[in-house]
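Deliverable D2.4 — example input (structure tokens):
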């Protein structure tokens, strides 16, 4: 009798556990962990405030090179454009968003480096950019070392901010915002003398109608930024699938098309398509 009671109780616990598991896996599919289409959604992390790369338009649509890469890769993974849910992943949030499983992968000007590789895995690279400086059109700042003692803006959790502190201008008065759009506003108002991050990002801002003629890129290649697609640590199957998709995007010329459409208006002279797995140090 006693035994039977225990068994009944166990059965109840088991039933509850099964229900919980069922709910859990449903949530998981919603969050984009499903490996094929069939009505599932996929969540992809992008930037929302970087014109030409990852931008949320006023009408709620998304544009930019990273958005096009993400859309192409998703399609190869079995998801149509209408099955994608883009999620904002700011520079400082990317590793945590992947660890928590908020998104399946991140295409957000996300440079591959050893520190990040401790926490996440990367597919790619799919673009090589370089750290540069954006200044007012009449600025005398002409090199990284000119920034020492000057007011400079970059973004928390970015390689750009880290490089300034470690090498480029340790004596600059560095202000760190959560996104580059805030830095650009600070440059326009005169609150800072320069903004530093990847040339790809800075060119996109400089070409915006509202800033036309106001800023210039200094043209310094202060670093190599190899953009990768971030994936949860250990998810090798997804890395392999994304790498295959990126190879196809280059070979069928969709990569060139995305470059022309997104970087053409900013007159950004990008590097040629990188080889998958080859990091330019
Ligand atoms: N590519 C650099 C990085 O991953 C700077 C751009 C960004 O903050 O996304 O940190």
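Example output (designed residues):
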């Amino acid at each position: 009798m006693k035994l039977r009671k225990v068994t009944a109780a166990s059965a109840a616990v088991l039933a509850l556990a099964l229900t919980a598991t069922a709910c859990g896996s449903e949530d998981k599919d919603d969050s984009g962990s499903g490996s094929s289409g069939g009505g599932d959604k996929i969540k992809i992390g992008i930037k929302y405030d970087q014109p030409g790369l990852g931008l949320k338009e006023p009408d709620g649509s998304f544009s930019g090179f990273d958005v096009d890469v993400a859309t192409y890769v998703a399609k190869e993974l079995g998801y149509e454009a209408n099955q994608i849910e883009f999620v904002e992943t700011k520079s400082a949030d990317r590793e945590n968003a992947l660890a928590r499983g908020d998104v399946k992968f991140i295409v957000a000007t996300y440079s591959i480096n050893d520190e990040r590789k401790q926490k996440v895995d990367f597919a790619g690279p799919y673009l090589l950019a370089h750290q540069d400086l954006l200044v007012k059109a009449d600025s005398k700042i002409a090199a990284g070392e000119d920034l020492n003692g000057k007011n400079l803006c970059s973004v928390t959790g970015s390689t750009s901010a880290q490089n300034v502190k470690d090498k480029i201008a340790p004596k600059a008065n560095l202000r760190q915002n959560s996104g580059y759009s805030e830095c650009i506003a600070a440059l326009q108002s005169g609150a800072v003398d320069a903004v530093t991050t990847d040339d790809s990002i800075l060119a996109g801002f400089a070409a915006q109608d509202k800033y036309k003629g106001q800023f210039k890129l200094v043209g310094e290649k202060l670093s190599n930024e190899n953009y990768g697609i971030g994936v949860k640590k250990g998810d090798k199957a997804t890395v392999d699938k994304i790498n295959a998709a990126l190879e196809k995007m280059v070979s069928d010329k969709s990569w060139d098309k995305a470059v022309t459409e997104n970087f053409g208006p900013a007159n950004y002279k990008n590097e040629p398509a990188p080889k998958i797995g080859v990091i330019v140090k």
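The first strand starts at residue 42 and ends at 46.
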